[in-house]
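Contributing new complexes? Match this layout with manganese (II) ion.
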Amino acid sequence: MRRKGEISRKTSETEINLSIDLDGDGTADLATSIPFLDHMLNLFARHSGVNLFIRGQGDTHIDDHHLAEDLGICLGEAVKKALGDKGGIRRYGAVSIPMDETLCNVAVDISGRPYLVYHSSLKDRRIGGFDSSLLREFFKAFTDHAGITLHINVLYGRNTHHMAEAIFKAFAHAFKEAVTVERKMSGVLSTKGSLD
Ligand SMILES: [Mn+2]
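Output block (do not edit by hand):
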């Protein structure tokens, strides 16, 4: 059974339609109306092997805050739906990914408990038209709604675009590892018997 999740969410600030297939081939069809996030989420889909479809719009005439946060909420909700009872998943994923002069470590625990640790001193506040401080808001909203523990540590780096790419690529590979189904394991990897 392919693990899919779909979310349609409309508020006075944003409107988002998002679907994810955890057992895809890394295909993405993205129009979040935040071009830099399209680029980052395209990297996430490609490197994690999920299929991702997003249509998003919002009050970006103010700034990208509401839309970036709500995209995190919707990705989190869709991942939680797609994971279902989390049967047989590896639960943990941890990688160290270089991007030229940058090195980023990401560790994931699909614990059912939301928690974000985010250590990344991005040099520039702006990456093109995007406010780089919103990456933390995106991941906070994602972890809160996916029920996932996520540690992002950019150890060092110089170029802010490289650092953002390293974060999303490392997140993708750690996520891919954590959602991989171990055929020989029944139930969930928890002595509690559940990951909710
Ligand atoms: Mn790039």
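Reviewers usually confirm one structural detail per submission. For this one: The mean pLDDT is 95.
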